[in-house]
Structures are given as C-alpha cells and as structure tokens.
Amino acid sequence: MSTIAMPQPTASEAAVRYLITNYSPKGNKVGWLMMASILVEAWDLYSIAFVLIFIKEQYNPDPLMLGLAAAGTQGGALIGALLGGWLSDKIGRRVMFLITMVMFIVLALAQAFVPNVFWLVVIRFLLGIPLGSDISTGYTYIMESMAKGEREVMGNRWQFMFAVGEVLTIGVIVIFLLLDIHHETLWRVTLGLGALPALIILIMRHDVPETAVWLVQKGRFREAKKVAREMFNDDLAMLPDQDAVVPKVSTRAFIADLKKDPIRWRATIYGWIACFAQGSEFSTFAFYLPVLFVMVGVSSVLGNNLVTMGLFCFAAVSGWVGPLLTPKIGHRGIAIAGFSIVLASLLVAAFALYTDNTILLPFAAAAMLWGHYWDASNCMTIPTMVAKPKYRGTASGFAYMFVKLPSFLAIFLFPSLFAAIGQANATLFVAIFPLIGLLAAIFILPEVYGYEND
What we know:
single chain; mainly alpha; Growth Hormone, Chain: A; two-stranded parallel ribbon; about 80% helix; globular
C-alpha cells in the first residue's frame, strides 16, 4: 500500500468536520441497526431474572453462586465496555461490531448446555464482555453516522429499546409457562434464544461499512473516499487520493484532552454521574417489585411476569416520548425532569411505606419508572457526542462502565441493606441517587444539544 507523508492537519480535520456537519447517511437505518443490538443485551440481562427460580429449583446453589449467575453478565460488561471502546478506536467500529455479535451467538448458545451453575457463572461473565463492548461501539457508530440533532434523538432511544426487550423477553416466558414446558427446558431455551436476535443483527450488519470519520482519523483516505461515495455520493475532494501515515493516538490522552474544553469536560463529568445515578436507582428498583406484587395480590410466577410486562409496556411509552422531547427542552431539560420525577416518586413511596398507606405505592413505582426512562436516556449520548472522534470509542466505553458498576454492586450490596434497615429506610437511601443526578444536571451539565465537535 502506497503512503505519503501526513498532509497538513487541516486536511483530515476539515474532512471530519465536513462529514459530521453535512451528512446523515442512511441515518435512521444505521441508527436503528445499532439500537437493535440493545435488544440482545436486554434479552440476556432480563431473561435470567425470570428463570433464576427454575435454575435454583434444579441445582439449589448457595446464594452467592445464584447471585453471581445473575450478576455475571454485568461484571463482564464492565470489562467489555472499557476494552471494547478502546478497541473500537484502535481497530475500527465495523470489526468490533462483527466480533461482538459472533461472540454473543456462541456464548448465548453455550448457556443452554451448561452442566451446572459454576459453568453458567463462567459463561455469563464471558457473555458480558461482548455485550458491554457492543453498546459502547454502537454509540460511537451513531455519533459518526448521523447528523447533529438526529443522532441525539436516536442515541436517547436506548431506554426505549431496553423496555421493548424486557416486554419481548417476558412475553416469550409467559408463552412457555402457558404451554407448561418442563422447567429445565424452559430456562435453557430462554437463555439460548438470545442467540437468535444476535444472528439476525449479525446478518444485517455484515454490509454496513466502516465509518468514514474513523477511516479519515486513521489516514486511510482511499477507503474513506470509497465509503463516502457509497453512503453520501461525495468524493471528499479535500483529501488526497493516497493514504497517509498518522501518529497513533494515545488513549491515556483522552482525559487530558477533555480537560482542555470546559464544556466537554463538564458534559462528560455529568454523563458519568448520571450513568452511575440512573444505574443505581434502576438496579435497586427490582426490590420494590415484590412489595408491589403482594399489594395487588399476585403470587404466582405467571402473575408476576404479567404484572412486570405491564410495567415495562408503560416504561416503553416513556422511553419513546423522552427522546422526542429532547429537541424541545434540551439535554438539561430531559435530565432535570427525569431525575426530579424519580426523586419525588421515591419520597412518595417512602411516605407510603412509613405510614402504611400502601395504595400510593403502585403509582409511585410507575412514576419512578417513567422518570427513570427519561433521566437515563442521554447519559450515554452526551459523553460520546462531545468527545473528539478519535476518542469516541473510549468515551462511550468509559460512560458505560459507570452504568455497569452500580448494576453489578447492587445485586450484592443492596439486598443486605434492604433486609437490615427495612423497606421505608431503604427507599430514602435510594433517593440519594436521583438527588445526585438532579444536582449534577442543574449545576454541572451545560446545554449541549446540537453540540458539534471535530
């Protein structure tokens, strides 16, 4: 491959700025394809919650092993978010997309054939690595394949996709229960079925090209021109027809680069705080569901699944409405509204528990879920969007790490706290997280809707 000396920095920078400013190449198609991968993660994260009872019935593991079976994917995703984001910047977005889906197909199928809980824990931990990697890579792809404004609405739809994934997962399990399928067959087939949407997404992604922005950043101008011609019908005349030798980007420089711009730095700090806050409030939400079920007289497995499906159908509406409101009220507006609703809902729930006025609890739980799907909508979008293109994979991975960390910790720490201090006190404790998110949205987050960074 012939190369030339690196041209003036303004050539590649101008090309990146030009691409980001002017084009939304097949934007919705690419964006929805990236969002579709969230269905795969939602299937795995949520399906285990509904089949753990059958795994416990068969193997009777100790609580630690059962907890690890549930949390293993979260722990693996923590590693995958960091590793995948870094690799996305190093070897490309498309390569990482294909690798992660292949890994998920193999590991999802492997879950269905584990001989014991120990191997289920191992497989699920490994499974989390491509899941965490895929989300961070997907956000990078969206930010580089869609025009400003549109990319933010699409990025903010990830919570809607999680809700859809939850409803689909419960729907399949409900059908299995109604068919009275043997419990061992039910949990093995349910976990293994995650490979099916992954296979479909892999086939659909196969022809998606590498992003032109990443190719320009790597000095692969000939490929960038080819992709731009195919996707935008534009030859990127500002670039030479030969590749260039580009100095390697130091990932360690990511934080230092952010600190150079107060807006990007504050927006990123907010994104990390919001990721942790929303991850914490949602991970602990599950502990309120049994209280809600008992209140409405639900005790069967089928009944629990149906009530949960209803809650997440409601959540899906919130997840769809939030992104549509973002262009009107901005990222700050949707964040402030979301965290405020969650905070108020938890305070009402605490009051209901302290006063034994439990009729308020279902309404508080529903309102909390609505607010959560707003405050969580942009916590991944913002850090990925404001990062420079050469750091976007790393930025997305860092942000997703702050989602997965509280999810992993909550499974181990919160049950003990819930049992030790009681429902009402635990509810007040959880209210700390939306309060932190709300204060961060008010005092740290600058309005960055439509932000443009080259």
